[in-house]
């Protein structure tokens, strides 16, 4: 059924809930999960303005995914972590197509509240643009 599941995660509470569901499905279907975090332009600008060095930025981003990784280990599923740059919704959709993702799992709301108010939620845009099935977890 599912061989390749993408978990779009940003460390938000909803993305942690989505991780639970992604790993349950992966365990049931013996699928591999790719945890994907997309660094958008606003996040990059914020990091530069705070004068965070590149090592510090990488560590902060990895920290946001630590809870999801811990859940993957607890569930005993195979997983990888990928950090990408770009517009979150477009990057998630493009990467899912490139990797032949069977299912995209994500939360309803992420950490970037400003982007959600201006252009709509990332999850909504992924649903609209994706050729892969999308599971939105509330």
CATH class bucket: Alpha Beta
SSE order, one letter for each helix or strand:
EHEHHEHEHHE
User: First CA to last CA: what distance?
Assistant: 23 Å
- Give me the CATH architecture, please: 3-Layer(aba) Sandwich
CA-atom Rg in angstroms: 14 Å
User: What is the structural class?
Assistant: alpha/beta
**Strand runs, count:** 5
Largest sheet: 5 strands, parallel
User: Which stretches are low in confidence, meaning pLDDT under 50 for 5 or more residues running?
Assistant: 44-51, 115-119
- Total helical elements: 6
- Strand fraction equals 15-25%
Biggest sheet, strands in spatial order?
Answer: 3-2-1-4-5
CATH superfamily: HUPs
Counting structural domains, the number is 1
- Helical content stands at 40-55%
Cα shape: globular
CATH topology value = Rossmann fold
Mean pLDDT rating: 85
Structure description:
There is one protein chain. The chain is an alpha/beta fold and 138 residues long. The chain has one domain: HUPs (Rossmann fold, 3-Layer(aba) Sandwich), CATH 3.40.50. Helices cover 54% and strands 21% of the residues. The protein has six helices and five strands. It has helices at 13-29, 41-49, 54-75, 88-98, 113-119, 122-129, and strands spanning 4-8, 32-39, 79-85, 103-107, 134-137. A five-stranded parallel beta sheet has the order 3-2-1-4-5, sandwiched between helices. Helix 1 links the parallel strand 1 (4-8) and strand 2. It is globular and about 35 Å long. It starts with a strand and ends with a strand. The model is unreliable at 44-51 and 115-119 (pLDDT under 50). Keywords: Cytoplasm. InterPro entries: Rossmann-like_a/b/a_fold, Universal_stress_UspA, UspA.
